[in-house]
Specification:
155 residues
């Protein structure tokens, strides 16, 4: 298992608990507990902290994106796991330019399949796939599905 995949698992565990307590339990203390409990020798905690801090900083926008792309599912009716897998995926897909879009989608689908219900992988794939297609239509991605870099012009 790669360090970043483990980092995403720890982020998911942390978001799950944070969400369970409606954001009233400090995220940092949940993360520290999860790192000590589940990944004592994990050497990329900074990746997980950056991921979590980014998600929390953009949680309102991310939640609105979920509601836009899953209109038949009110946010509170999406399972805690699926909701937080989508938060990770949307953050990495739309806001973290260090993560290739296809990696963000694949990692989120794997998290959904591993920790969610029977249809979680398909649900996550459907939502993130729709976002990806809109990013393509909006010119945010190049012909290979990668983010366009600043200063380049379309060919």
């Amino acid at each position: 298992m790669s360090n970043r995949h483990l980092g995403r698992i720890i982020a998911l565990q942390t978001l799950f608990e944070w969400d369970f307590y409606n954001g009233t339990k400090p995220l940092e203390s949940i993360l520290e507990h999860n790192l000590a409990e589940f990944a004592e020798k994990f050497d990329d905690a900074e990746f997980t902290k950056k991921l979590l801090n980014g998600i929390i900083a953009h949680v309102q926008t991310i939640n609105e994106t979920i509601q836009h792309y899953a209109p038949d599912w009110p946010l509170e009716q999406i399972t805690n796991i699926d909701r937080n897998v989508l938060r990770i995926g949307i953050y990495e897909l739309k806001m973290d330019t260090d993560i290739p879009p296809k990696v963000a989608i694949n990692e989120s689908i794997e998290l959904g399949k591993s920790f969610g219900g029977e249809s979680s992988g398909k649900f996550v794939n459907g939502v993130l796939g729709s976002i990806f297609r809109d990013m393509e239509k909006n010119g945010e991605l190049d012909e290979d599905g990668e983010r366009k870099t600043l200063g380049t012009t379309p060919s």
